[in-house]
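Budget justification, computational time. The allocation requested in the original proposal was used primarily to generate structure tokens for proteins on the priority list. As evidence of use, we reproduce two of the resulting records. The first is shown immediately below.
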Amino acid sequence: MMVDDAALRGPRNTDFKTLIPAAPLGVAAPTASLSERARELFLRPDTARMGRRNRLSNFTFAVFAIAGGSGASVIAALLGSWALIGILVGRFRPDWQVSDRPIVLSSVVFFLVISTSDLVHSELGRALLSIAALLPFVIPVVLVPRMRLSRFADTLPPAFFGAAIGGLLLIPIVLLEYAFVEIRVQGLSGNPGPLSVTALLCAGWSILHFQRGLNRWHLLIALLGAVGGSLAVVLSGMRGTWPLLPLCIGIALFAQRREIAAVWRDSPFATRLVVSFGIVAVIGAVLVVAMPTVFTRIDQMWSDLGLIAANADSPTSLNLRRGMYGAAVEAISARPLFGYGAEAHWEAVTPYLNQATFEGMTFTHFHNVVLTVGVDAGLFGIVALLCLVAAPVVTAWRARGTLGGGRRLAAAMILVVAFFGAGMTNVMLFHDILDAVWVFCISLIAASVPAVTGRGAEVRQEG
């Protein structure tokens, strides 16, 4: 049975003056020096206030994840570092729950497997650089207990709102870029691939912000956020992500069907009429704007397929993928267990490539995350990757009957579809923006599960 999180959010404001004991009559309250008060604030802060501040950080990160490009990487690094400092100096006691294990352990194991392969197969200096780039995957170890200081209302809900705001910002960003710069937009991500992944996430998570009881501006932002994410997916020209867009939106709509129906029933007839016409108009406008990109990319696909059918060696998008996929499978078969290391993966597939097609070319990944990880770290790497991908859905499924369970499960499914689905034809991981967004989102999913023991359980009971 699902628990309605909206009914259990609790009061938004707390009067902390009532928590401070007053001095007895006739006795002056003890005073502390500025340095003592600063030390007290830093080393022994109010964990309830720390939990409420997570609301702002979760919202801010979601905005940057959708519309801020590499700013998301910077924020994730800062929040992870601050959480580590907080644990080391005793600002809060880490409270890892049993429900955290799939996400935390799978992230650490993935980091260890890929790092070990790099150490074994690469020069020490290059291996250390590769390992440094993988450090985001250990952030959940410290970020989950820091996030767990919050009530559910301060974890996923502000992230959904942030995703909607990010999608709203994407509308002018991608339209201006489309009109004046490129027919295939990339936003602030610097590449259409990462933009299409985060935009898929935006389209789904924005709809998860749609809740009864919110004012009309929040509901409008949720709808426009989904429109912005959808528009960015289409205008990115990433054909592999296009089929994933209706899937992400469908998951969100199914999870929110009762909320949407309740808002619709409670709205006046005039409002329903305006909304209906508005939705039709927006869909029509998106189709008109996106059609040139869609037709251009479809024409390119048919042209590529024609060259493949003619057995031509032209370096087209589909031909290059076909060649890389076959070469990667051959390379994995030759060294199946431990792979070749990230620094040597192109050299590993080169003997199996058609040199006429790939002359003078190198790629940092094989446009398929399973094959990329397989060449880098063999079957051990592939198993670690699959565990990493499954962890958020497993965590959310086990907690589906708890506070916020329906939206949590939908959020996890949308995250996996957006990342792993896109990763089957392009990029999923090993990119600064995508790594940061992935580890932050899975940490948020883990921390949003109600705690059973410790300080987290007390916070959930209060909220």
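The second record produced under the same allocation is shown here.
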Amino acid sequence: MKKINLNGKWIIGISLLIISGYAYLIQASDNEQVIEETSAKMHFEINNTKHSKEKLKSKASHAKDLEKEKPTYKAILDKALLIKDKELRIKTISNHLLNWAKDAPYECVHWLDEQYETPEYMLYVSQVIHFLITDDLSLAGSIILNFEILHSDQSIVDDYLSSQVAVSPYDGIEWLNNLNNEKIKQEAEFRLLQSWANLDPTQLLNYLEVHTEIAGNKRHIIQHQLAQTLTKNNSQQVQDEFYSYPPSFQPNLAYSVISQWPEHELSDAREWIFTLEGEQSKYFAIKSYIDYTGSSSANLNELIEQIHNPTLRAYLLERLQ
């Protein structure tokens, strides 16, 4: 009985050993399959990645080739200059110039700078500068200063300043100080001041009080325009605040007030003149009354007698004859 038990245990042990071995073989086989699958997957991914990179590289190379093949604005414009039909030539060149001005304004203007003998040259310059002024005023100012052919052209300088004065007159004055051409500078400054007088007369009046170097006939014309604008905006306010304005400006203001006085209220105008203080202001007010009404001496003799300067008084009396 004991021997049988030993044999049974031996058989069981052998069986367990066989089962364990079989299980090990199955597991090893599964692991080998996993490794093979993983290896295959990795190989596929590597190949796929390599293929993708090669595809991207091919696309990039193709794009680069296309970029090389794409003609430059310069080449396009040089070709467009050869177009014989004037209308088509102008249209083609204008369109390409405006596109170039958007992408690379300095390069565009530099090309224009070299085309001074080109037909319709000033037309193209005007179009590009007008676009730049509208698109980027500060950039336009810098470009104009950088090219002599631009800042030596009065119309281009005036075109720029007419836009700049609406944004900042002081920046316009500062920009003008960079010009070397004194003639263009003086003319442009005068036009800037005229525009400023219409846009913000009070601000300009304060500027003139500080900058006494603006003198002579230029100052007189600007002050006259200032007075006209102020009176036109609010004549009654000007009358009420007349003596708050600088004494040197009051004569121009008096002339402007009377020039815009309603015709049906001329008796009030004469009364206002009568109360005016300052001989120069009174003189200009009477002169304005004569200029705009042509009145007879019967209405003005009493007022003219208030002018003590014999030369001024004689001039007014002569105007009435």
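A brief technical remark on that second record: The chain has a mean pLDDT of 85.
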